[in-house]
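Structure in, sequence out. Go:
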């Protein structure tokens, strides 16, 4: 039986699960995350359910995949309609406080928390509604170069409103621990959700100096001819305004900025943990860390996420504290949908009657050494995709199924960087994995439903013609900052 304990759940944005020292990365410095892993358990093969902020966060909250909820994109996101693990804990008398980025529809909805402190939700209550035009097949590309420039021009030395927001989240978390941590009869959860390591990859000089740009590794497969080309990925490059990556110095600067931002994130987590330790809380408080999705930062010729390569869907997942063995690495596949039952069990709470069909499992058996073979699954139905894409991993074999386009097949044991697509030479394996995928969902039916939901939502916002005039959201401004302030390139 799991020992009930408090929990500080840290979540970040955009942290590729390979980029931690404890995960074996030779460059990225994450001493705090490494200490959490050394004290507890690191899940080596943890996945988000969809490589985009809102659908991923909706799944983490509800314990359900996008095709089960209809939370498809950065406009159709969590709205209080379905129960979350936050609701279940609060219903049973636990305090569940969220600080920072949630990216749900609004705080006006009942999102299940006891309190939301400096929350970040959909921009202007709408989010990326222009991208709902995907449902009509006429989503406009980012041909103004803004997304390309976000990486090429803003990866370097400086400061951002995002890091200011991170520091505010840290300060609010420390204040909450000082004021409330000892005032609860039942185990509490403090959900501390940062906005880093989301671009822009702009960092202070001291962090930039940790990563000399000329010594940074180049992303794998950034050159044409060195990667498996696929029409879905080529469409994504077109929609995001990607150009052929020829400037190696720029790619190294991007890596340096990204790595520096991950270290900034690590420092913020460290400040909260230092306060928790000084308050004497760690004896009965667990620490967990994950991210909503990853980032390719140039791998496969792509900036960002919005695809089903490992760098976009593999996420960190760490847990330490009472009842958690130290220094353990779990190889069993894990998913964000598993956190619903796992967090309830960790607090000593029970699931509701409506939770019987949740697809996730309690990870405590794996945490304590009883691993089991599992399939890993994720999907994508949002900006930059012509059709629904689905991933199924069985052992080391990974299928990416694209509706209306060829499938992709990778052997992650031999080819962890996914540079050799085996689909054409292994049709029987593709077929076998597709059958297992279809036992989870019907890809064509899900694709049709996602687009129908997007068309319906677009119509509710005034129709396709009106949405064409909407501003394309480059990234969501933090609370209290206008999009003009957030998006401005310093010095220009």
């Amino acid at each position: 039986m799991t020992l009930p304990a408090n929990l500080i759940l840290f979540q970040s944005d955009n942290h590729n699960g390979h980029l931690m020292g404890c995960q074996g990365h030779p460059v990225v410095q994450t001493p705090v995350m490494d200490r959490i892993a050394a004290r507890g358990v690191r899940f080596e093969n943890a996945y988000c359910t969809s490589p985009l902020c809102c659908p991923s966060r909706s799944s983490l909250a509800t314990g359900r995949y996008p095709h089960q909820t209809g939370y498809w994109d950065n406009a159709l996101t969590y709205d209080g309609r379905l129960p979350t693990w936050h609701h279940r804990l609060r219903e049973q008398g636990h305090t569940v406080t969220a600080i920072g980025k949630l990216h749900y529809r609004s705080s006006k909805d009942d999102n299940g928390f006891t309190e939301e402190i400096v929350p970040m939700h959909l921009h202007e209550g709408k989010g990326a509604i222009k991208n709902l035009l995907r449902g009509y097949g006429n989503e406009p590309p980012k041909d103004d170069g803004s997304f390309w420039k976000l990486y090429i021009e803003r990866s370097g030395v400086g400061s951002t409103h995002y890091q200011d927001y991170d520091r505010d989240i840290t300060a609010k978390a420390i204040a909450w621990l000082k004021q409330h941590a000892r005032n609860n009869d039942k185990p509490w959860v403090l959900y501390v959700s940062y906005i880093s390591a989301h671009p822009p990859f702009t960092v202070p000089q001291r962090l930039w100096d940790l990563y000399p740009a000329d010594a940074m590794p180049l992303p794998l497969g950034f050159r044409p001819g060195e990667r498996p080309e696929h029409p879905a990925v080529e469409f994504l490059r077109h929609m995001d305004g990607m150009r052929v990556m020829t400037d190696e110095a720029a790619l190294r600067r991007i890596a340096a900025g990204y790595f520096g931002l991950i270290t900034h994130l690590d420092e913020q987590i460290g400040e909260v943990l230092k306060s928790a330790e000084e308050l004497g809380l760690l004896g009965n408080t667990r620490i967990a860390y994950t991210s909503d999705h990853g980032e390719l930062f140039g791998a496969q010729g792509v900036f960002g996420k919005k695809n089903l390569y490992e760098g976009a869907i593999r996420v960190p997942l760490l847990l330490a504290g009472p009842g958690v063995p130290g220094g353990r690495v779990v190889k069993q596949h894990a998913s964000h949908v598993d956190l619903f039952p796992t967090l309830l069990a960790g607090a000593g709470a029970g699931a509701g009657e409506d939770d019987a069909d949740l697809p996730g499992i309690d990870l405590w058996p794996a945490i304590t050494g009883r691993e089991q073979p599992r399939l890993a699954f994720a999907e994508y139905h949002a900006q930059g995709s012509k059709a629904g894409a689905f991933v199924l991993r069985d052992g080391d074999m990974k299928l990416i199924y694209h509706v209306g386009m060829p499938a992709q097949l990778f052997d992650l044991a031999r080819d962890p960087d996914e540079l050799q697509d085996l689909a054409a030479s292994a049709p029987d394996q593709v077929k076998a994995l597709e059958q297992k995928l279809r036992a989870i969902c019907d890809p064509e039916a899900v694709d049709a439903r996602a687009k129908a939901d997007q068309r319906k939502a677009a119509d509710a916002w005034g129709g396709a013609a009106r949405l064409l005039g909407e501003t394309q959201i480059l990234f969501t401004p933090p609370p209290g900052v206008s999009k003009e302030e957030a998006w401005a390139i310093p010095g220009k």
